[in-house]
């Protein structure tokens, strides 16, 4: 169920959050996701750098590459 929408209404009662067996298990299971999203962010940054050093225009929707940790001022 998608939960980041304003139309969840009373269905919020149906939302179940999974709790990992342990912190180590959660980290291990999330490694694939971390690698995937970090590689996308790195690719975007490389692309932005190439565009900034070229005569071509940029694509606005990829200009934001800050991590959530940077936005929240926390250590990764």
Structure description:
With 76 residues, this protein is mainly α. The protein has a domain at 22-72. It has two helices and no strands. The two termini are 28 Å apart. The model has no long low-confidence stretch (mean pLDDT 77).
Structural topology:
Elements: H1 23-52, H2 68-72
- The radius of gyration over CA amounts to 18 Å
Shape: flat
Average pLDDT works out at 77
Approximate helicity band: 40-55%
Overall structural class, as computed from helix and strand content, comes to: mainly alpha
The low-pLDDT segments are none
Main sheet record: none
In short:
This protein has helices at residues 23-52, 68-72.
Descriptive terms for the model:
76 residues; mainly alpha; 2 helices
């Amino acid at each position: 169920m998608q939960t980041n929408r304003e139309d969840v209404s009373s269905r919020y009662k149906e939302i179940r959050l999974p709790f990992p067996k342990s912190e180590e298990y959660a980290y291990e299971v999330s490694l694939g996701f971390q690698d995937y999203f970090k590689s996308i962010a790195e690719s975007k940054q490389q692309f932005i750098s190439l565009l900034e050093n070229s005569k071509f225009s940029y694509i606005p929707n990829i200009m934001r590459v800050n991590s959530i940790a940077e936005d929240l001022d926390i250590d990764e």
